């Protein structure tokens, strides 16, 4: 930007208190509400199970909305880059733990995914003083498949469409699991490559 005297001035950064970041924070706050709704009727095919599934789908869908708003109106912030993937992890983590508590998902699957997600999040905090690590394309694809897999697992479709829907759920969850592990390794590998590059002069 140029001042009235013609001197260059740095462009002002958007405030951390903006609409996309508020949406992201609301997603985080909705996670415990969703988990309580999922568990309160012990996994029965009742109104609360459907409501919990709907809440998860709406909450996870806002991930694309806040990102679109942030890019369109130049509201991208370092805080938003950090909170956005955390919100996804809190929501998906709550859903995975809930499904495992209900006996609808193997605990080892939940543990593998949570170890990867928590590990990458901790790593992001550790390097925060040097750089902000945004979600990669692979990470976004992983989140998309996790969202699909968990959404299908939450909605009691086998009770409506038949047992073949279990196979759909298992295939989607298997793809999400593979992407979770692969992208976790990729984050570390890419970061190591960047660290080995000589500083540009």
From TrEMBL:
UniProtKB keywords: Lipid biosynthesis, Lipid metabolism, Membrane, Phospholipid biosynthesis, Phospholipid metabolism, Transferase, Transmembrane, Transmembrane helix
GO cellular component, one term: membrane
GO MF term set: CDP-diacylglycerol-glycerol-3-phosphate 3-phosphatidyltransferase activity
Keyword NADP found: no
Enzyme class label: transferase
Compartment annotation: Membrane
Catalytic activity, EC: 2.7.8.5
Keyword set includes Membrane: yes
Chief location of this protein within or outside the cell: membrane
GO terms, biological process: glycerophospholipid biosynthetic process
Superkingdom of origin: Bacteria
Membrane topology reported for the UniProt record: Multi-pass membrane protein
UniProt record similarity statement: Belongs to the CDP-alcohol phosphatidyltransferase class-I family.
Protein name: CDP-diacylglycerol--glycerol-3-phosphate 3-phosphatidyltransferase
């Amino acid at each position: 930007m140029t001042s009235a005297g013609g001197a260059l001035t740095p462009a002002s950064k958007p405030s951390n208190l903006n609409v996309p970041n508020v949406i992201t924070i609301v997603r985080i706050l909705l996670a415990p509400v969703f988990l309580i709704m999922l568990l309160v009727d012990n996994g029965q095919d009742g109104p609360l199970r459907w409501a919990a599934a709907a809440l998860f789908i709406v909450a996870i869908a806002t991930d694309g909305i806040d990102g679109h708003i942030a890019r369109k109106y130049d509201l991208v912030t370092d805080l938003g880059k950090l909170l956005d993937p955390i919100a996804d992890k809190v929501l998906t983590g709550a859903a995975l733990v809930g499904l495992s508590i209900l006996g609808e998902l193997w605990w080892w699957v939940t543990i593998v995914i949570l170890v990867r997600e928590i590990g990458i999040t901790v790593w992001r905090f550790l390097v925060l003083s040097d750089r902000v690590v945004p979600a990669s394309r692979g990470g976004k694809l992983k989140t998309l498949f996790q969202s699909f897999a968990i959404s299908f697992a939450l909605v009691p479709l086998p009770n409506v469409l038949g047992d073949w829907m279990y196979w759909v759920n298992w295939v989607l969850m298997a793809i999400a699991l593979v992407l979770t592990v692969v992208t976790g390794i990729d984050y570390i590998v890419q970061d190591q490559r960047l660290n080995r590059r000589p500083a540009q002069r």
